[in-house]
Design brief:
With about 190 residues, the protein is mostly helical. It has one domain: Cobalamin adenosyltransferase-like (Hypothetical Protein Ta1238, Chain: A), CATH 1.20.1200.10. Helices cover about 60% and strands about 5% of the residues. It has a two-stranded antiparallel sheet. The termini are far apart. About 30% of the residues are buried.
Length: about 190
């Protein structure tokens, strides 16, 4: 259990951050970039939750937010470390099951869709793009040092999950906003 009595520690004033194993790294490191992107993705999902209100998607997103704290801890724990919190295959599988359940209730895509619509749909699309950025940052880190492959898979599935979630919410609100190729060209 985490217990924080004081939020500021002054240990990062010199431009470094502490990791789970007690080591310190530059705040500009690939690891800290990945941790920051995951944190931003989690906050964006929080915005989507507030835009959706009480909803079946909200419960899924709250579980995902919890997973993203697990994932952040995983990224913040370099190498092998006893008791490290790691993303596991069942967390990835849960996202796949949820996507399949939502997709079974959707019409097939006939066009690319624009990332917009209602505030909730738009927030889900924005969260999806931020998760993609978090995935790119984590892949960059994984090219420099080994990471848990399940955390990479989780981020990859999560962006897909947010896409399907946006479509699921949009379907209840009249449907996706479809891309119309060349619409404004005037030819």
């Amino acid at each position: 259990m985490v217990k924080l009595n004081k939020i500021y520690t002054r240990t990062g004033d010199g431009g470094t951050a502490g990791l789970v194993d007690g080591s310190r790294v530059s705040k500009s490191s690939l690891r800290m970039a990945a941790i920051g992107e995951v944190d931003e993705a989690n906050a964006a999902i929080g915005v989507a939750i507030s835009a959706l209100g009480a909803d079946e998607i909200q419960l899924k997103l709250l579980e995902i937010q919890n997973d993203l704290f697990d994932l952040g801890a995983d990224v913040a724990t370099p190498g092998e470390f006893d008791g490290a919190l790691r993303i596991v295959a069942s967390q990835v599988a849960r996202l796949e099951v949820e996507m399949d359940e939502m997709n079974d209730r959707l019409e097939p895509l006939t066009s690319f869709i624009l990332p917009g619509g209602s505030p909730g749909v738009s927030a889900l699309h924005l969260a999806r793009t931020i998760v993609r950025r978090a995935e790119r940052a984590t892949v960059a880190l994984s090219s420099a040092e080994p990471l848990n492959p399940h955390l990479l898979a989780y981020l990859n599935r999560l962006s897909d999950h947010l896409f399907v979630s946006a479509r699921f919410v949009a379907a209840r609100e009249g449907g996706d906003v479809l891309w119309q190729p060349g619409r404004s060209r005037g030819d």
